[in-house]
Amino acid sequence: MKVMARAAGHGHLSGFNMEDLTTFNKDMAQLTGVAYGGVL
User: Which residues contact 7 (CB under 8 A, 6 or more apart)?
Assistant: First the structure.
């Protein structure tokens, strides 16, 4: 997880926020408000 945080440009896990999240599931994106990372 530390490596993922650094790859996303954060120094610590606590630096993650909603803008860092995406989902490949279109329904999950609609239900949660998390950005959809697939092709429409």
Answer: none
Which residue's entry shows tokens 């092709």? 39
Domain ranges of the chain: 2-36
Which residue's structure tokens are 């945080």? 5
Task: Give the integer Cα–Cα distance in Å for 32 and 14.
Answer: 20
Whole-model pTM: value is: 0.60
User: What are the beta bridge partners of residue 22?
Assistant: 35
pLDDT-based confidence at residue 22 (cuts at 50, 70, 90): very high
For residue 26 the two structure tokens come to 């279109």
Q: Where are the alpha helices (DSSP H) in 1-40?
A: 2-7, 26-32
